[in-house]
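TICKET: design request
STATUS: open
ATTACHED STRUCTURE:
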C-alpha cells in the first residue's frame, strides 16, 4: 500500500516519463519542459514572454474509487473509537495534459508525443514507477520521500485511461482555472491505494473450539433474560438494588456496565442472592461532595449490562441487556414556589454528577429549559427559563432529564395504581 505522498508520486511518474519521451533521441522537438503546475501559473510565465516548449500535467480532480470503496470491513468497533482495521483509501486521479508553444504546429506535436506515451503505457510497470521516483529532480522539495512512498508496491497497478469531457465541462474547468485555453487531453489514473498507519486491535486466535449438542430450549451457557429495576420502574437510580434474571448464573462473580458514548466500562463484583436463575447487585452511590473534576459515580444514561461467569481458566461474558440509570433530584431541594416571569433561573442539586458531554434539561410540569453551560462535572446544574408560566395555583412535578432519561416521578409500587411522587413546585 501507498502513503499519502502517493498522489504526488503519480504526478512525478507521469512527469518523468513524459520528459523522457518529449526529450528523447527520436523527438525532433528539441528542449521540452514537462511541468506539473496549475495552468494559471504557466499563463503568467507566458505573459512574461517565455517561448519555452512545455507540456503540463495538472491533477484537477480526485474521486473515490467505487470498486474499492466498500471492500474491507468497518474500521471502528461499536464504541466508535476502537480501531479494528485500516481499510485503504482508494482514489482515482483526473488529469489535464496541456501543450504550450508559440509557433505553428508545435503544440500539436507536443500533444501527439505525450498522448502516444500514455497510449503505449496504459499500465505503469512497478520497475518504471521505481525508476521515475528514484530520479525525481533534487529541486523538488519532496524528491527524497517520494522514493519511499510505496506506490510501486501497492496491490493494484497504476492504470491510465482516457477521459471524455464535453465542451461545457471543458469550458467550466478552464474558466475556473482563470487561464487561456490550450490544446488539452483529459485522462484518468486508477487507482491509488493509501493505507493508514494507525494502530489497530487484533484479537488473538482461538486455541481450541468446543462444540456440544444438548437437548431442551434453555441455552447450555449462561445467558441473561431480563434486567428488573426496583419498584416496577423502567429505570434505576444510584443506590438501587437491581435484579438480573437468566439461566446458569449460579457461578456469576460480577456484572459489567458499558456506556460507549461516555467511554465507561465498569465491573461491579459485589453480587447478592446469587442463584442459578437470578442475582442482584447494587448500583454504587458514593458520597461525592463538590467539587469533583473527575467524579467516580456512574453518570445517568443507558448502559449495556452483562454478567461475568468463570468457566475453567476463562471468564465468560454473557449477552448484554440495557439498563437505564436515571438522574435524581436530591430531597434537599424544596423550593415550594417559583416565581413566574422571564429569564427565571433555577438550580437543583442532583445525583449523579452531570458531565459536560451530556445534555441536561429541567422540566417543570410541561415547561422545559436546557441547562446553562458548564465546563466541569456538576451536581447542581442551573437552568434558565426564557418564560416560566404560572401553574394556576397547582403544584406540578419537576423532572431532571439527562441524555433523554428522566428522574423518577412515578410511584408504581402499587399495581395498576401509579401516582406522581417526588419533587413538585408551584409557579405563581
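STATUS: resolved
RESOLUTION: sequence designed for all positions
ATTACHED SEQUENCE:
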Amino acid at each position: 500500500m501507498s502513503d499519502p505522498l502517493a498522489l504526488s508520486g503519480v504526478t512525478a511518474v507521469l512527469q518523468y516519463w513524459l520528459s523522457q519521451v518529449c526529450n528523447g533521441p527520436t523527438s525532433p522537438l528539441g528542449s521540452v519542459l514537462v511541468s506539473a503546475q496549475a495552468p494559471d501559473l504557466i499563463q503568467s510565465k507566458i505573459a512574461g514572454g517565455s517561448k519555452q516548449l512545455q507540456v503540463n500535467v495538472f491533477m484537477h480532480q480526485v474521486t473515490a474509487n467505487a470498486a474499492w470503496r466498500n471492500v474491507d470491513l468497518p474500521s471502528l468497533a461499536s464504541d466508535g473509537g476502537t480501531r479494528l482495521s485500516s481499510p485503504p483509501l482508494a482514489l482515482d486521479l483526473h488529469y489535464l495534459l496541456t501543450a504550450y508553444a508559440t509557433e505553428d504546429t508545435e503544440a500539436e506535436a507536443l500533444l501527439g508525443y505525450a498522448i502516444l506515451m500514455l497510449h503505449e503505457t496504459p499500465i505503469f510497470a512497478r520497475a518504471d514507477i521505481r525508476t521515475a521516483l528514484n530520479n525525481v529532480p533534487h529541486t523538488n522539495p519532496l524528491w527524497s520521500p517520494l522514493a519511499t512512498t510505496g506506490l510501486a508496491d501497492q496491490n493494484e497497478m497504476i492504470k491510465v485511461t482516457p477521459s471524455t469531457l464535453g465542451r461545457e465541462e471543458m469550458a467550466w474547468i478552464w474558466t475556473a482555472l482563470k487561464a487561456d485555453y490550450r490544446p488539452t487531453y483529459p485522462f484518468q489514473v486508477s487507482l491509488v491505494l493509501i493505507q493508514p498507519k494507525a494502530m489497530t486491535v487484533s484479537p488473538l486466535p482461538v486455541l481450541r473450539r468446543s462444540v456440544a449438542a444438548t437437548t431442551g430450549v434453555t441455552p447450555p451457557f449462561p445467558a441473561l433474560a431480563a434486567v428488573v429495576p426496583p419498584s416496577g420502574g423502567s429505570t434505576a437510580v444510584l443506590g438501587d438494588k437491581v435484579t438480573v434474571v437468566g439461566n446458569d448464573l449460579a457461578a456469576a462473580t460480577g456484572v459489567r456496565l458499558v456506556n460507549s458514548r461516555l467511554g465507561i466500562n465498569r465491573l461491579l463484583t459485589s453480587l447478592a442472592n446469587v442463584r442459578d436463575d437470578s442475582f442482584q447487585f447494587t448500583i454504587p452511590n458514593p458520597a461525592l461532595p463538590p467539587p469533583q473534576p473527575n467524579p467516580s459515580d456512574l453518570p445517568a444514561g443507558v448502559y449495556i449490562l452483562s454478567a461475568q461467569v468463570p468457566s475453567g481458566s476463562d471468564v465468560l461474558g454473557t449477552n448484554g441487556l440495557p439498563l437505564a440509570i436515571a438522574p435524581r433530584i436530591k430531597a434537599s431541594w424544596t423550593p415550594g414556589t417559583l416565581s413566574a416571569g422571564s429569564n427565571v433561573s433555577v438550580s437543583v442539586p442532583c445525583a449523579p454528577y452531570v458531565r459536560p458531554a451530556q445534555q441536561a434539561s429541567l422540566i417543570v410540569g410541561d415547561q422545559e429549559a436546557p441547562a446553562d453551560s458548564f465546563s466541569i462535572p456538576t451536581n447542581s446544574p442551573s437552568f434558565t427559563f426564557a418564560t416560566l408560566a404560572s401553574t394556576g395555583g397547582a403544584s406540578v412535578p419537576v423532572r431532571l432529564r439527562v441524555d433523554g432519561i428522566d428522574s423518577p416521578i412515578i410511584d408504581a409500587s402499587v399495581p395498576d395504581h401509579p401516582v406522581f411522587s417526588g419533587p413538585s413546585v408551584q409557579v405563581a
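CLOSING REMARK: The first strand starts at residue 32 and ends at 35. The chain has three domains: 6-194, 223-325, 328-427.
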